[in-house]
Amino acid sequence: MRLTREKIVRLSHQITEVLVSSEEVDFQDDRDTIRQQVVSILTELLKAEEQVELDVKEKIASQKKEIPEGTEEWEVLHRKYYMDELRRLGIASTAPDDRRRS
């Protein structure tokens, strides 16, 4: 998902405000340091997600059989490879994808 720098900064402010308002969170650093770290984490995760998307598309394209993008087979492979890559990076849980059951 592409987010502009402004949207990432806005999200970082919102996340920081939620943390500040929580009684369960005790800040060791000032708010701005925490917010900047949130920006950094979000930016790194979004970059990793973009690379995963490229890797998945490349993996599908490298299949012996041509699988046109947008077909059901392509979507199934994309979902599987995408989740595999996220798990490999530690971004997604190792539990099966439950979204399809909803």
Description:
Helix content is 65%, strand content 0%. It has one domain. 5% of the residues are buried. The radius of gyration is 18 Å and the shape is elongated. The C terminus is likely disordered. The longest helix has 31 residues.
Summarize the structure.
By secondary structure, the protein is an all-alpha fold. The protein is 65% helix and 0% strand. It contains three helices and no strands.
Show the helix and strand layout.
Layout: H1 5-21, H2 31-61, H3 72-89
Helix pairs in contact: 1-2, 2-3
Say how many strands there are: 0
- 3D shape: elongated
Summarize the amount of helix as a percent range: 55-70%
Sequence of secondary-structure elements: HHH
> What structural class do you assign from the helix and strand content?
mainly alpha
List keywords for this structure.
102 residues; elongated; mainly alpha; disordered C terminus
